[in-house]
Specification:
The chain is of the alpha/beta class. The chain has two domains: 4-42 and 198-264 and 359-410, FAD/NAD(P)-binding domain (3-Layer(bba) Sandwich), CATH 3.50.50.60; 52-83 and 124-193 and 268-355, D-Amino Acid Oxidase, subunit A, domain 2 (D-Amino Acid Oxidase, Chain A, domain 2). The protein has ten helices and 20 strands. Strands 4, 5, 6, 7, 14, 15, 16, 17 and 18 form a nine-stranded mixed beta sheet that branches. It has a six-stranded mixed beta sheet with strand order 9-2-1-13-20-19, with helices on one face. A three-stranded antiparallel beta sheet has the order 10-11-12, with no helix packed on it. A hairpin with a 4-residue loop joins strand 11 (229-235) and strand 12 (240-242).
Length: 414
């Protein structure tokens, strides 16, 4: 039976969900507050990474985060402030950063990521959005870094994810298009990358072609309820958007929208930055992560995007120049042909990643309302998990099982 599905958020999660619901025969309305940014969807590193099966909350992350906080150019920073939401988030992050949590989460993250990669590959057979299936290189500057990354490779292989440990020479042979100064790398051949803006535009075109409605520059301000059901979304224009089912996919803005429904989503906005070089001095063919620096490099057509940092400082719209400097200083350490001056005049982009304290998305139905599906909190994995999240939302809207073992770990009511 066709119903009206109202989706709050027009980033990759919301749009992927919209397309999945349209394919199931529903009428769909998407509401997006900022079409120029779409959360963190347009300027990110564009990586699809089954290799990333370890959640952000993992052993050692608290100690590493405290160390990084001493440097204004570090890849991770939490702005100290007297904020109860931040304090409780930090305590939950600390409690979740255990080996047991990683071992429980890894199989589910693997299964979601591999399903998402297949959906991307299937769509790429019909649509062009720059999908490149050449894998990912985790570039290690030091032998210590390589030894640590080799442990992740071992865990990946135990999960059935291929991983190869390479020395500097073998890495150079794999991607001879770029000069590298490294001790070695770990190569994940199943990973891939794409151009996020092209994927978003593809989704928008397919949604509209299927009869979906996208309301841009409209902000949802709350809900009207009747008993245990949401009746309508209230908007900044004064209009009410009525629907049969509602999907919350508003990224870092999600907690504020459901607070009045009695749902407490513990989440912090993790600001990330990127710079895109239109004519780089060298253009790698394989996307890479500079392991020690936590910086990503992704070829996108003839351009090269460099991105990184996780800055938890609230919904702060200012550009932290020291964070940008940290990214720029890392590039020539791994790609020595690049210089700081190559980035002169390149405007930095930033977006807010929605980060739950345990590093797992909020995906599922909630006791807060009978007809509300939550699909948010993907952290740095939003683009990577967008297609499979859309498929799961479609199943949940139709009251079907999500289809993944361990899915209860993602409950919004956890």
């Amino acid at each position: 039976m066709s119903r009206h599905i109202v989706i709050l958020g027009g980033g990759v999660i919301g749009l992927s969900s919209a397309l999945a619901c349209l394919k199931r025969g529903h009428r769909v309305t998407v509401i997006e507050r900022d079409p120029q940014r779409r959360g963190a969807s347009l300027g990110n590193a564009g990586m699809v990474v089954p290799s990333h099966f370890v959640p952000l909350a993992a052993p050692g992350m608290v100690a590493m985060g405290l160390k990084w906080m001493l440097s204004p150019e570090s890849p991770f920073y939490i702005k100290p402030r007297l904020d109860w939401d931040l304090i409780t988030w930090g305590l939950k992050f600390w409690r979740a950063s255990t080996k047991a949590h990683v071992e429980r989460s890894a199989p589910l993250l693997r299964d979601l990521s591999l399903a998402s990669r297949k959906l991307y590959a299937d769509l790429a057979e019909k649509e062009e959005f720059g999908l490149v299936k050449k894998g990912l290189l985790m570039l290690c500057k030091t032998q210590h870094g390589l030894d640590e990354e080799a442990q992740t490779a071992k865990k990946a292989r135990a999960l059935g994810i291929p991983a190869e440990i390479l020395d500097a020479r073998a890495t150079a042979e794999l991607d001879p298009a770029v000069t590298m100064d490294i001790a070695g790398s770990v190569y994940f051949p199943q990973d891939c990358h794409l151009q996020p803006d092209r994927y978003v535009n593809t989704l928008l075109r397919l949604i509209r072609a299927a009869g979906g409605e996208v309301l841009d520059e409209v902000e949802v301000t709350g809900f009207r309820k009747s008993g245990k059901r949401v009746v309508a979304a209230l908007t900044s224009t004064g209009d009410e958007i009525a629907g049969d089912e509602f999907v919350l996919a508003s990224g870092a803005w999600s907690p504020g929208l459901v607070h009045d429904l009695g749902l407490r989503l513990s989440m912090q906005a993790g600001k990330g930055y990127s710079l895109t070089l239109p004519a780089p001095v060298e253009l790698p063919q394989i996307c890479a992560i500079f392991t020690e620096a936590r910086v990503a490099a992704t070829p996108m057509g003839s351009s090269l995007r460099i991105g990184g940092t996780m800055e938890i400082a609230g919904m702060n719209e200012t550009v932290a120049r020291r964070r940008i400097e940290g990214i720029l200083k890392a590039v020539p350490q791994y790609y020595p042909r690049f210089r700081r001056e190559h980035f002169e005049g390149v405007a930095p982009w930033y977006g807010f990643r929605p980060c739950p304290p345990d590093g797992l998305p909020y995906l599922g139905r909630t006791q807060a309302a009978d007809n509300l599906v939550i699909a948010t909190g993907h952290g740095m994995m939003g683009l990577s998990l967008a297609p499979v999240t859309g498929e799961v939302v479609g199943r949940l809207v139709d009251r079907e099982p999500a289809g993944f073992d361990g899915f209860e770990m993602l409950s919004p009511d956890r």
